Each structure stands twice: as structure tokens, then as C-alpha cells.
Fold this sequence. Notes:
Blueprint: H1 3-10, E1 17-23, E2 26-32, E3 36-41, E4 46-52, E5 79-80, E6 107-114, E7 120-126, H2 130-135, E8 140-148, E9 152-160, E10 166-168, E11 170-172, E12 175-177, E13 185-187, E14 193-196, E15 202-205, E16 210-211, E17 216-221, E18 226-231, E19 236-243, E20 247-252, H3 254-261, E21 272-279, E22 285-287, E23 292-303
Antiparallel strand pairs: 1-2, 2-3, 3-4, 5-11, 6-7, 7-8, 8-9, 9-23, 10-22, 11-21, 12-21, 13-16, 13-18, 14-15, 14-17, 17-20, 18-19, 19-23, 20-21
The structure holds 6-O-phosphono-beta-D-glucopyranose.
6-O-phosphono-beta-D-glucopyranose is lined by residues 72, 98-99, 173, 197, 217, 249, 251, 276.
Amino acid sequence: MNQLAELRRRFAGADFLSFAELAPDFVAVQVRTDFSAATIALQGAHVMTWQPNGQEPVVWLSSAAKFAPGKSIRGGVPLCWPWFGPHATAATESAYPGHGFARTIPWELLDARMLPDGRVRLEFAPVMNDAARAQWPHPSTVKYGVTVGQELDVALATSNTGNIAFELGQALHTYFQVGDVRQATVAGLAGCEYIDKVDGAKRKRQDGAVNFTGETDRVYLGTAGCCEIVDPVLKRRILVTSTGSRSTVVWTPWAEKADKMGDFGADGPWKMVCVETANAADDVISLAPGATHVMSAQYRAIPA
Ligand code: BG6
């Protein structure tokens, strides 16, 4: 039986779910609740869309995103795992993909259920292929929970099932939809040290809210687990709360870099900003044998 037919058979009773093949060998699960709707690709367990009922989408998906096996999707919630950015030894191991392999390998939908309050919770686990195992030889398991309701709640749990500690870098690399990034700000990071990746990785300290006047690529360190995107154009705030994360990445490419990337669409660079719940740079996790680390993020849009 093909994958689509098998999923439809397994989740036949779940009328809050549907499945679609968006491109050859590229299947996504669509979730509808009384509060919001979401689409999640099985490749990368990648939340592609999330839209509360009666609102603009909160999660941005590029109109030029490519849906193809092994290619990362521009937009949504890419999972960066088990490293963030370039691999630590990338100079010698150039085949290691930036942001890790989790976002481009298939994941399995383990479970989907409606909770008593009407939210829908899905659980995914990666299907590790040989390349992934070669790049990540550490005995470990990963589970990813996605709960769709008035909020979108995503939680990535990594367990060390071996007997040697390992280092873990990760990010919930969420693209948020804004009316115009040139007018948006991000509050909640004032006073934090950050690594400015567009200024030679200089260490700086954030003064007030973050605003955007050009390409911005920063890893904020020691962040508190709560920040918000203030959007005067869509007249809303997007609240981002998190647990198990000590860094926050703020990224927006601006027109020239987005053009080079080729999958942003014409207006794309102005309509998005990434605020990523992460454990990156100084904040990578050392996971002891037998330990589990959960990094989670909750997103909610509030009319301003
Ligand atoms: C951000 C990084 O998290 O992701 C940027 O800080 C990077 O440096 C961006 O350009 C997009 O990465 P990718 O691999 O999805 O194009």
C-alpha cells in the first residue's frame, strides 16, 4: 500500500485529519480544529502552515517554497537538529547539511488525537537513514509533539540512550508572517548578549527592542523564554514562549540575500521574520547518558 493510503487507513476514524500528496513522494497531514488549521509535511515533521480561524496565517510559508524529497522547505517551522548552523567540523565534513538533517529526512506520524478541550495533538519520530546515522552515531531517540489549538505548541524531546554524553544543537526555526518586517519589532531581548552573524560574529548587547533595517542574523544568548513580535501593519502581537531553550535566533535575509536564495518569492523577504527557539553557539546542550532534554515553543497571536 502506498504511504497516503496507509495513513488514511491508520487514521480512518480521525475526522480532524486529512492527508494530501502535495508533490510526488511528498505527503502532508492537514489538521483542522475549532480554533485553527495546520499543515505538517511528513518530511522533517515540518509544520508548513498554521492559521488561527479568522486571522492571517501566523506561520509564514513562501509562495516559492519547493516541496521535494530531501529539500528543505522555505517557511513554516523547520527543525534544526542535531546541530544548528554549520556542523562543528564542517570544514572537513562538507557533506553535513547546515542546520542538521532532521528537516530533510522522513518522519513517521506515531499518533494523532483530539484532546478533551478540542486541541489536536500529533506525535512524530524521525526515520533515520544511513547518511543520518553516519552523521549522528550517538544512540538516541527523538520525539516531536505538535499541538494545534488556540496556540500552536511544538516540543522536541531528545533522549540519550547510550552511555556517553553528547552535544546537541537545535532550533525550532519558525518563520512568522508579518505585514512588513521593516515596521515590525521584536521585544523581550533587551539586555541580552548576541552574536552578530552579519558583522563578523561580533558580540554585542541588545539595547531596547530589535528593529529591522537590513539583513539581520543574530544568536541571542541566555534568553528568558518569552518574547514577542509587534506588528503594527497586521495590528497584532505574536507571543513566543519557550522552555528548555537558552538562545533565540532572529533572522531576516532582506531583499538581496533572499533573491540569491531563490525560494522566497517576490514579496517574501518583507513578509516574514524568523524568531527561533534554540540551543545554539554557547548554549548547546550536553546530554548525559539516560537523560532527556525537551525544548518547546508556544505561539499565540493577539490583536494589538
Ligand atoms: C538562520 C541562520 O537560522 O537560518 C542563517 O542564522 C541562515 O544564517 C538561515 O541563513 C537560513 O538557513 P537555511 O539553511 O534554511 O537557508
